[in-house]
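re the bet — no i am not wrong, look at it urself. input seq straight from the record:
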Amino acid sequence: MTSLQNQLDEITANTRQLVQAERLAVGERAVAELFASEIEERILPVGALAPEFALEDACGRVVRSTDLLSLGPLVIKFFRGRWCPYCVTELETWRDLYPALRERGALLVAISPQTPRQSDFMVGQHGLPYPVLSDPGCAFAEQFGLAYAVPSYLREYYLSILVNLPFINGDAAWRLPLPATYVTGQDGRIVFAEAHADFRVRPEPAEALAALDRA
């Protein structure tokens, strides 16, 4: 099976062939600034207790972390939205690995600032078997140190390629989370934590599954 990062690198290579250099430079600037902010250094670390959540799924039902943890360890995937091909590829990879996750007695949730309606489209389009939850304004992601404001020049670029975050997310905050993977034991203690300022880089699911075996 092709590694997740190889799949993501292929998206990057195709994008660089299709998109003009000056437009690519906008995204590169945003990644560089986010990296320079040292946001990666401030994420909630291994050993910390994960905050509890009560968030709406794609059907508008409230899903609570306490209920999930009563059943087993938990993988928490923060992603930017259904408009991001890197996020879609990653969540499809987890879809295919979901049976292996369940064999370990674990559960998974994917969390983004998009509205439940957007999540509903995503679940149906990509056949996701796990809950896709809405985190309005990245309030929950903020507790993990993952939330940031999209700079004005990047907002203009997103709108030019029809990524209307106020519509997709249902608010005018223009906030996104770093794509991140967390694994917690049933006690809510974090045993794996990884997030990258460069949205094109994601941890291999195998690393999170290995952490589950230690949870």
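see?? The CA atoms of residues 3 and 98 lie 16 Å apart. told u. also Residues 4-214 form a domain with the Glutaredoxin fold (CATH 3.40.30.10). so pay up
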